[in-house]
Design a protein that fits this description.
Oligomer: single chain
Bound molecules: acetyl coenzyme *A, oxaloacetate ion
Structural class: mainly alpha
Strand order of the largest sheet: 1-2-3
Radius of gyration: 21 Å
Number of strands: 3
Length: 372
């Protein structure tokens, strides 16, 4: 059988989407037409989530109604907390989160209602509840008691409150919101496509998001933000960064936080996230990590001409915000769940089962030998 096989579906246009557009030639990323850099500079993550789901930035009344719904449904049941508490202490928080999303689905009586309004309500519920689960995971790994959500606080401030028992300086909150806005949506990336594949079978939104969490965990995708910080801690001294990177490349190893399937001449989001990292470093005395960032970036460009992706500045920025490394990919989930759920709804609006073909390379047909 001769077939035009595109390994990894590279370059394949699988469907249309009206949610975001990635234009690598102009280093542009827009959500519903708006440049992500402008959104990051001027809007809250709640406004951007509304834009991603509903196609427009909310006016004052729509934002007030949305934030009221979000604040009212942050709490999760004792049974979800109980399930989370039963996963092994030493498991990765992404395992815990995958289990928690599945449990939220099992608890929702409208789990299998795939009508648009029902799925929009589920998307909002996941947006409100996942930070509560993730903050619990953060405190559990530190042996600390859970802190309940505070409906008097905005989405990001409440998350820090649930993690650390306090709300940080507005500058820290802003850097965090910038990371959430930049991570929210990126067309048919691996985890979003996974969610669309699951949705295309007419399964439920929670199953699709559970699968997407699993896809995001991998170090070639969302797991890279953790790998970046592990790498930086291993290097320890910015003056060693160039030699360290060249040794990795000589050993034919990949360096996490570099390269991208779509952006080959730089990731459109990196300058904005790097500026947030620089702000975090100035606030916390962490300039060493910015120097290391720049040494690694320079050495990689010289050696291979490969640019950093969004995970490269996000990893050290989360470290400087005080999060443990295994929490970095769950932070990515808190944001990308907006994109995933918007894509699930879009997939169902014009559904076709996603089922590509394969070119068989096994043995030719042969008779089964007589049983001995
Ligand atoms: C939010 C996100 O998910 S962004 C992506 C996060 N992932 C990472 O940072 C992991 C590291 N990066 C990578 O593995 C890759 O760049 C990917 C998977 C993201 C994209 O890769 P692809 O488009 O499939 O390209 P592929 O992996 O085939 O790389 C092409 C060439 O560049 C090299 N290359 C790409 N990325 C890297 C890297 N990070 N380190 C070293 N070499 C790299 C490959 O070795 C390959 O070289 P070769 O042609 O000599 O064999
Ligand atoms: O688009 C991709 O392939 C990876 C991704 O999710 C992102 O860059 O945000």
């Amino acid at each position: 059988m001769s077939a035009d096989i595109r390994k990894g579906l590279a370059g394949v246009v699988a469907d249309t989407t009206a949610i975001s557009e990635v234009v690598p030639e102009t280093l542009s990323l827009t959500y519903r037409g708006y440049p992500v850099q402008q959104l990051a500079a001027s809007r809250s993550f709640e406004e951007v989530a509304h834009l991603i789901w509903y196609g427009e930035l909310p006016d004052a009344a729509a934002l007030a109604a949305f934030t009221a719904r979000e604040r009212a449904q942050r709490e999760v049941t004792r049974s979800t907390i109980g399930v989370v508490d039963r996963v092994p202490d030493n498991c990765h928080p992404m395992d815990l989160l995958r289990t928690a999303v599945s449990c939220l689905g099992a608890e929702d009586p409208s789990e299998d209602d795939n009508r648009r309004a029902s799925n929009q309500a589920k998307a909002e519920a996941l947006f409100a509840k996942l930070p509560t689960v993730i903050a619990h995971a953060h405190r559990r790994r530190r042996g600390l008691a859970r802190i309940a959500p505070d409906p008097g606080l905005g989405w990001s401030a409440n998350f820090f409150h649930m993690c650390f028992g306090e709300v940080p300086a507005p500058e820290v909150l802003r850097c965090f919101e910038v990371s959430m806005i930049l991570y929210a949506e990126h067309s048919f990336n691996a985890s979003t496509f996974t969610a669309r594949v699951v949705a295309s079978t007419l399964s439920d939104m929670y199953s699709a998001v559970t699968a997407a969490v699993g896809a995001l965990k991998g170090p070639l995708h969302g797991g890279a933000n953790e790998a970046v910080m592990k790498m930086m801690l291993e290097i320890a001294d910015p003056d060693r960064a160039g030699d360290w990177l060249r040794a990795r490349l000589a050993a034919k190893e990949k360096v996490m936080g570099f390269g991208h399937r779509v952006y080959k001449d730089a990731d459109s989001r990196v300058p904005t996230m790097k500026a947030a990292l620089v702000d975090m470093a100035a606030l916390t005395g962490g300039r060493k990590w910015v120097r290391m960032y720049e040494e690694l970036e320079r050495a990689m460009l010289e050696a291979k001409g490969i640019h950093p992706n969004l995970d490269f500045p996000a990893g050290p920025a989360y470290y400087l915000m005080g999060f443990d490394i295994p929490m970095f990919t769950p932070l990515f989930v808190m944001s990308r769940v907006t994109g995933w759920t918007a894509h699930i709804i879009e997939q169902l609006d014009a559904n076709a089962l996603i089922r590509p073909l394969s070119a068989y390379t096994g043995p030719s047909e042969r008779p089964v030998p007589a049983a001995a």
